[in-house]
Amino acid sequence: MDAPDSSHLSELIALLPPGAVRTDAETMLEFGRDWTRLHEPRPLAIAFPASTEQTAAVVRWARAHKVALVPSGGRTGLSGGAVAHNGQLVVSMVRMNRVIGVSPADRVFRGQAGVTIKTVQDEAKRYGLMYPIDFAPTDTMQLGGTIATNAGGVHVLRYGMTRDWVAGLTAVIGSGEVLDLSVAVRKNNVGYDLKQLLIGSEGTLGIITEASVRLAAPPSETSLALLAVHTADDLLACAEQARRYGSAVLALEFWDNAGMTLSLGYLKRPPPSPVGGDSRWYLLGEFEGRDVARLWSLACQADRCCASALVEADEERAKALWQIRLKIGSSVAPYTPYKNDISVPVSALPAFLPALADVLGKDRAGERLVVWGHLGDGNLHINCLKPDAMPLPDFAAASRRVDDHVYDLVTRCGGSISAEHGIGLMKKHALSLMRSPPELAALRGIKSVFDPDGIMNPGKIFD
Ligand SMILES: Cc1cc2nc3c(=O)[nH]c(=O)nc-3n(C[C@H](O)[C@H](O)[C@H](O)COP(=O)(O)OP(=O)(O)OC[C@H]3O[C@@H](n4cnc5c(N)ncnc54)[C@H](O)[C@@H]3O)c2cc1C
Question: Which of 62, 163, 179, 301 has the most CB atoms at less than 10 Å from its CB?
């Protein structure tokens, strides 16, 4: 891609309302990166369009001058997808935060791409409905960003991924054309489903500017239990007990002792009684039905697979318990974590967990490990924390060596090297483990149709 000269930038500034293109250092740093901290942000400028038309004008300008674009949402991504480290123009959706409306009859929310997931959830609640895509940074992550990453979260077990909830969308693709894929009916068999290609495309095909998502009826009553568990075998036995409750299981989340300690420190809270803070593992089960969590914890105690249990049916106290799980990510953030997000079939977990412990013991560089995730769907987040004294490049190289062992194990178990965070910059070196040469050729072919000049987030997912 060419570096645009200053007259090109003046032309862009003239295309957008006053103040919609910024180059001050603070904005460049804030909008030039996501939650990953392994690349130095170095954007050309940050553009803040407010409509689909303004976004299309930016893309056509970029195509004319061969300027690379980085679509940017809430910048909570964990794969470096929204990082502009190479002189790209960041196209931020923060000004595109208008709620277009909710249709309770269709159970559909429609909004601009920059609406936060918290806003979607709050709007749904006003109609007695819910949007089930849910995880920690709901007040920052955006509708467009979560669609572009096909985000998962804590309720995938019951409700599925973002892909399952997108009813329609509008996008400006790399050619500068607007695709209006907003027909939000359930039955719509009219050839290839182009919106599905944009879901999970990490900004490499186009910029999603508006979207409709389906809403669900919330569960009538829920209950929650936190179990303290001493061994990986017991963890899996407790998960197996939970599965007996079928679709009543809303979430099954786990974390290790290091995650418990860090999160409690972050929240400035004592260990929850009676489970305490000394167990090797913790397992949080959320269920539909007031009594199910209690029955589950009793069954686990009777089976001797859990050491102790805390059951919460009160909504506020249950929310406080959820915070321990949801704040683990924030609690590790100051330690420049190298994140690994993998999944294996649930049936492979009994073989996978002990093998993972062996693998993580290899090639370590003195970093601390924190492991947590969505055990119910076989999705583990393995985080290596950077030792203070270790330079960032050495830490990244050491972490990559751990990756190699983990990916080898994951692929042998029939799993995926990226469960929900995407490929971005962080995993493109390993994409060929998951994609055959014909698949890679097909991905590149699709990109060239949507983005003939390669201006959409180049260097992300693949080169
Ligand atoms: C504490 C924490 C916990 C998390 N937990 C989970 C979890 O449980 N499950 C999970 O799936 N993820 C999780 N994530 C990561 C997750 O991918 C992001 O939080 C979210 O999906 C990204 O949304 P965003 O708006 O912040 O997008 P960004 O980070 O801004 O962007 C992500 C990618 O999408 C592209 N993009 C953004 N907006 C658009 C758009 N409008 N059109 C086209 N492309 C666009 C960007 O170029 C980039 O490639 C977590 C992150 C954090 C920080």
Answer: 62
Residue 72, burial from CB neighbour count under 10 angstroms (0-12, 13-18, 19+): buried
The rounded Å distance from CA 6 to ligand 1 centre is: 32
Beta sheet of 222-229, edge-to-edge order: 308-312, 222-229, 281-288, 249-256, 368-374, 379-385, 338-343
Mean local confidence (pLDDT), 319-334: 95
Task: Answer whether 327 contacts ligand 1 (Cβ < 6 A).
Answer: no
Length, in residues, of the chain: 463
CA atoms of 455 and 84, how far apart (whole Å): 13
Radius of gyration of the chain (CA): 22
Tell me which amino acid residue 76 is: T
User: 197 with 248: CB under 8 angstroms?
Assistant: no
Ligand 1 neighbourhood includes 71 CB (under 6 angstroms): yes
Question: Best substitution site from 55, 91, 135 to test ligand 1's pocket, by max atoms within 8 Å of Cβ?
Answer: 135
Q: Is the CB of 115 under 6 A from ligand 1?
A: no
pLDDT digits (tens, 9 = 90+) for 184-237: 899 999 999 999 999 999 999 999 999 999 999 999 899 999 999 999 999 999
**Counting atoms of ligand 1 from 1, which one is nearest the CA of 154?**
8
